[in-house]
Design goal:
The protein has 26 helices and no strands. It is an all-alpha fold.
Length: 550
């Protein structure tokens, strides 16, 4: 590796992004809550789309999803294609209800529909899961990737464990600076720049890998993968695969509906759009960009399995790192490092900014100090962010390799803690009869029932299993079953002990400058929804036909 060239290109791109973000936000008053938490509701659709994409896309996918693909094949591309339909649901159904309530956080919606207790429970669950589930996995996968791909331990002359900790701390500190001093607008601007770079560099890796496999002939490399890894190109998984095809219509769909429609980390980006139509346009643009996901989040893992064999399949979390290290030209190492680190930081500061928002609005002003000013809210959120960074870094040191890889582990934890929140939000939108106490019980009870179902009939929850039955059901089906049971419980309570027939409660406005919402939809919404849905189905069908014998 040409170290001076790599370091120079890395610093150049990183500094340019930071300077552009600072220049564009230098006059913003970040003591104003709406400016700090929602970028003043001035984001154009392209920044909404890139902020959504980069908040979602980080090394837990670049490393974890490619690692899963090297072991299980293209069946894991469901994690990139099913979101297309969840994003369509967000644009058509969830977003209008959020905007009509003029809310800033999803927990605030629960207060409008149920009561303040529902808002606090959801806010606390979100904060805990982001701090202990999302942020540590981002730091873990980011530190692992940066240490492995760029040989940090060799360059610095330290142990691999030390280099991993250095990278994890670096990511945490840089992400914290964006959140403390820039607010959501700075985050969205950096996401847009890093997003463009990541798409280019991410798609370049499999192209370079196929050239290498074919000894300089791209088509020869592609032919070699198609011949030797045909079973791993098939996106339709059987009953015993990592992602059975029928789970796409159960747990896979429910997890993506939660993630893209009720997850504060994600929906907050759409709340920052300058209009309702711009928010819808940004959401559908994200759906279109997700269709590119399999080409740099899945297929590199399949190529790595062909190129490295047991070295990639034996430890899937190293597959992408090995591939990048083998094919990336020295003159692109620094640029890729900057873009790669930018994607990690974007996901990290996206989660951290959401934690700051929910603590300030849902807990600090919504509970602990109702009379707090905007300036006090922002200051409290920033201080809480610093605490969460230390918690996330400490949790990162406890993570280790899983037989299923870090990506699957993260999703299993998400299904246990967050699908009960999806059930409550959906029931809150569909039914006015369900009382607040039933929703509050469901958010807490749902976590334990999910763990119990996986311990009884699944493969266990984080290694814990009750060997009381020989029946085994895929954890995605169990996730859907748990969600349906919670919805059934709330509907039954609503039928026999309905809530009093009063108008929806109105929570105190989170921000003094909250404007009236214009709900005029984007005119191209219908056409764009049909196009991305058809392309998603066509991509699945094409790969299935490509992998079929003959």
């Amino acid at each position: 590796m040409n170290l001076p060239l790599a370091v120079g290109s890395f610093l150049f791109f990183t500094v340019v992004v930071a300077l552009i973000s600072w220049w564009q936000t230098r006059r913003d008053d970040n003591s104003d809550a709406q400016t700090y938490f929602l970028a003043g509701r001035k984001l154009p659709w392209i920044q909404v789309a890139m902020a959504l994409l980069l908040t979602n896309l980080s090394t837990e996918q670049l490393i974890g999803l490619n690692g899963a693909a090297s072991i299980h094949g293209a069946v894991v591309m469901a994690w990139e294609i099913v979101p297309v339909f969840a994003l369509i649901a967000m644009a058509w159904y969830f977003l209008p209800r959020y905007w009509s309530g003029n809310i800033t956080t999803v927990p605030q919606f629960l207060e409008q529909r149920f009561d303040a207790t529902a808002r606090r429970i959801m806010g606390i669950v979100f904060i805990i899961t982001i701090a202990l589930n999302i942020l540590p996995f981002v730091l873990y996968s980011g530190g692992l990737a940066m240490s492995t791909i760029f040989h940090v331990h060799t360059q610095l002359g330290v142990s691999e464990a030390t280099s991993f900790q250095i990278m994890a701390w670096s990511i945490g500190i840089i992400g914290t600076f964006y959140v403390l001093f820039g607010g959501m607008k700075a985050v969205a601007l950096s996401d847009t720049l890093y997003g463009a770079g990541l798409l280019v560099c991410g798609l370049l890796i499999p192209v370079l890998a196929l050239f290498k496999l074919g000894d300089g002939d791209f088509l020869a490399g592609l032919s070699r993968v198609l011949q030797h890894q045909a079973t791993k190109i098939d996106p339709v998984g059987g009953p015993r695969s990592n992602v059975p095809f029928d789970t796409l219509f159960t747990g896979m769909l429910f997890i993506n509906l939660f993630y893209w429609c009720t997850n504060q980390m994600i929906v907050q980006r759409s709340f920052g759009a300058k209009s309702f139509a711009e928010a819808q346009k940004g959401i559908l643009a994200t759906a279109g960009l997700k269709l590119l996901g399999p080409f740099f989040l899945v297929f590199p893992g399949v190529i790595a399995a062909e190129m490295f064999g047991a070295a990639a399949v034996g430890n899937g979390d190293l597959a992408y790192s090995l591939l990048v290290d083998a094919v990336l030209p020295p003159y692109l190492v620094g640029l890729f490092a900057a873009v790669f680190l930018g994607s990690v930081i974007s996901s990290f500061n996206g989660g951290l900014h959401s934690v700051s928002t929910m603590f300030s609005l849902d807990l600090y002003r919504g509970w602990l100090r109702p009379g707090a000013s905007d300036r006090e809210m922002v200051r409290a959120g920033k201080l809480f962010s610093v605490v969460i960074v230390f918690v996330a870094i400490f949790t990162t040191s406890l993570l280790g390799s899983s037989s299923e890889g870090i990506f699957t582990m993260m999703k299993q934890v998400m299904s246990a803690f967050k699908l009960p929140l999806l059930a409550v939000v959906v029931i809150g939108m569909f039914s006015r009869r369900v009382p607040a106490w039933a929703a509050n019980v469901s958010m807490i009870l749902g976590v334990f029932s999910s763990i119990l179902l996986n311990s009884l009939w699944g493969d266990g929850f984080l290694g814990f299993r009750l060997n009381l039955s020989s029946l085994r059901i895929h954890w995605l089906h169990l996730a859907a079953l748990n969600t349906v049971l919670l919805c059934g419980f709330m509907l039954i309570v609503g039928q026999f002990a309905p809530a009093a027939p009063v108008a929806a409660s109105k929570s105190r406005p989170n921000m003094s400058s909250a404007p009236e919402m214009d709900l005029k939809p984007w005119r191209g919404l219908r056409v764009a929804s049909v196009v991305v849905a058809v392309l998603a189905v066509a991509l699945y069908f094409s790969l299935w036909r490509l992998a079929s014998p003959g």
